[in-house]
């Protein structure tokens, strides 16, 4: 990023935005700002960002296509999306999808890889890459002991690019 770069952090909870602002002040980071908002409705102007990063947030959204449309809107042409998240590698049993603790624990609302790829491409992204990490099963099983969640979800890196050409 460097001294002339700028970071915009977004969270949907006032407490996390306040905490981030305190941490930035403590660290004397002057090129960061934090905004209250939802990932499906980012409080960021069109074509503002060079890169969007996210860590284990998109799986919590009930409307993942809206998340990717917003990311596309906010990115500049040639901008990149770089995400670490939980993805479904097998169809989740309905009882897991309905379990509020598993939803809050980043498991119950994990989307299948094919659905994520389709949502990203439908939003306009190219060079879509989703790479599940088999090694993540070893720690994911501890998120819900005895539930065999590691048979259904894995951590993955998710990357995509907004094309340089075109209208948006």
Task: Give short descriptive properties of this protein.
168 residues, alpha/beta, Rossmann fold, four-stranded mixed beta sheet, 29% strand
Summarize, please.
With 168 residues, this protein is an alpha/beta fold.
Major sheet details: 4 strands, mixed
- The number of strands is 6
Strand order of the largest sheet: 3-4-6-5
The CATH architecture term of the largest domain is: 3-Layer(aba) Sandwich
Describe the structure.
- By secondary structure, the chain is α/β, with parallel strands linked by helices.
- The chain has two domains: about 1-40, no CATH class; about 45-160, Vaccinia Virus protein VP39 (Rossmann fold).
- About 30% of the residues lie in helices and about 30% in strands.
- The chain is built from six helices and six strands.
- The strands form two sheets. Strands 3-4-6-5 form a four-stranded mixed sheet.
- α2 packs parallel to α5 (about 115-125).
- The longest helix is centred in the N-terminal third of the chain and has 13 residues, at about 15-25.
- The chain is globular and about 50 Å long.
- The mean pLDDT is about 95.
